[in-house]
Amino acid sequence: MLEISITPHSFYLFGINIGLSVVMAWAVLAVVIVALLLLSRRIKRFEETPHGLQTLLEMAVEGVHNFAAEKVGHCADFVAPMTMTMMLYVFFTTFVEIFGLPPATEDINCTFALGLFSFLCVNVTGFRFKGVRGRIHTLAQPNPVALPIRVLTDMIAPCSMGIRLFANVLVGGVVMQLVYQVVPLVLPAAISAYFNVLHVMIQTFVFSLLSLIYTGEAVE
Which domain holds residue 81? Predict the structure, then answer.
């Protein structure tokens, strides 16, 4: 029987419920950090002419930078690293579901935190490149009457982004549970691998795209 729950899974440490999503996020981050530390030692040996792993890394970094530049223009050098960090976090904390592990992004607390991080990135970038007066002036466009509405919209944005990501990840898990119940035993493995990777990539792209769109509006 298919069971769906939107309440966070419990995980007790020293008698305190810290939540399973927090533990999964810690575990994923530990693996990613170790991988990055090992990679940093490899980067020191990179050559002027890229090849192999160096080519892939440079393509990834340049791709994210160009992606950010399309939305935020001259602020891309400042915004792209934060965007890539956010993309890596969303991707890997969700990708673990392919191994049968509960993704951290299935917890609405995690997705709300990501929405709040995006909100901070948007406003830090806005104040950095436009100053206080410039940021207020942007929010007051096209007419000062719109200022309260624009402020309210900015405050709601992290909630809407968090709910959107949480709902999309939850629905993805439900769809795969339905597939497992409908199709034969051998087929779901291939479908699950394809769907999970594609699903995670789409959610990562959409979340980062929305964050960049809001940032672009803040510095326009």
Answer: 12-219
